[in-house]
Amino acid sequence: MNVSEVFDGLSCISLSTLSLALRRPSELRIYISHCLRKYDELVGNGLPCRAPVTPAQNLTITIPAYHAGGGMSFNELVILARVTKILKPKNIFEVGSYSGLTTAVFELNSDPDARIVTLDLPPGAETSQTPIASDKELVASRHLALVPQALGLCRYTQLLCDSMDFDPLPYLDCVDLGLIDGAHDVAHVQNDTLKMAKMMSDRGIVFWHDYGGKGKFKPLASYLENLAKRCLLYRIPGTSLAWAPAQELKSSILETRS
Ligand SMILES: C[S@@+](CC[C@H](N)C(=O)[O-])C[C@H]1O[C@@H](n2cnc3c(N)ncnc32)[C@H](O)[C@@H]1O
To answer: For each successive 10 residues of the chain (258 residues), what is the average pLDDT?
Structure first.
């Protein structure tokens, strides 16, 4: 635990925090992280809150009932499903497949001619260069295609490549819905964001997972909040999803680098 994590923990000390520390110490980190994220949302720290789409009253979505892990909550899956239904993306690109739960949500809610591409590390990449312990655990416990196979879904392409080595050239300017949920350290998130920006179409929307966390996830939040000084970026209340309309993201990121 580093100094900033200790301060974050101290900032939400209450009788219930102390009681949980005694009764269920292993759950303390999750509880504190949840409280701090909610606090930031309520007082307006960090990215502004905004929903990416407003569903019509008669809209229906499809979500796999079985949750295969990977960190995305059902609430977050509902948001991704709604966006897929409403945006009607022709091309969807995801960094971080894990067991294919989000891939399945994209397939179940997109039009039959939509192209879905999901990227994960090749087999045997368990020693990948990520400094975050929970990322290493996810790499080791992933079971690629578990969910799509169980549901009989096959309308997607699985790429096996480290996102650091991935070449976005074949996908330039054509992705309408992007999800960045691979390794969560800043070097990877920055790399994945730059490549996603290159691949996005002007009408697209990009999502990042795990925004708003503390400790090891704080640099990810700081990276996105810095990016928000140059283009529109939002958080979705009650979730750890952040999102941006692609057009401005593309111009701000790609112009800065040229
Ligand atoms: C949080 S999980 C993705 C969960 C998935 N989006 C879902 O909710 O169903 C992160 C995934 O990113 C993959 N990953 C980690 N580092 C990566 C890298 N450098 N390149 C590509 N994938 C990576 C891991 O193997 C893991 O499967």
So the answer is: 68 81 81 83 91 96 94 96 98 98 98 98 79 90 96 98 96 98 96 98 97 88 96 96 96 78
> Of 98, 180, 196, which is best to mutate to test ligand 1, by the most ligand atoms within 8 angstroms of its C-beta?
98
Query: Distance between CA atoms of 56 and 224, rounded to whole angstroms?
Result: 30
Is the C-beta atom of 98 inside 6 A of ligand 1? Answer: yes
- Tell me how far apart the alpha carbons of residues 180 and 167 are, in angstroms, rounded to a whole number: 15
Tell me the helix, strand and coil percentages in the chain, rounded to 5: 45, 15, 40
User: How far is 21 from 15, CA to CA, in rounded Å?
Assistant: 10
Amino acid type, 130: T
- Ligand 1 atom with the smallest distance to the CA of 125 is 25
Pocket flag, ligand 1, residue 180 (CB < 6 Å): no
Query: What phi and psi, each to the nearest 5 degrees, are found at residue 168?
Result: -80, -5
Three-state DSSP at 220 gives helix
Would you list the domain boundaries of the chain? 3-43, 74-257
Residue keyed to tokens 């964001």: 193
Atom number, ligand 1, closest to the C-alpha of residue 101: 9
Q: Which of 75, 48, 34 is nearest to 213 (CA)?
A: 34
Does residue 95 sit in helix, strand or coil?
strand
Judged by DSSP in three states, 96 sits in coil
Q: What are phi and psi of 51, to 5 degrees?
A: -85, 140
Task: Judge if pTM exceeds 0.90.
Answer: yes
Pick the closest to residue 18 from 5, 37, 31, 8 (CA basis). Answer: 31
What kind of fold does domain 74-257 have according to CATH? Rossmann fold (3.40.50)
162 Cβ inside 6 Å of ligand 1: yes
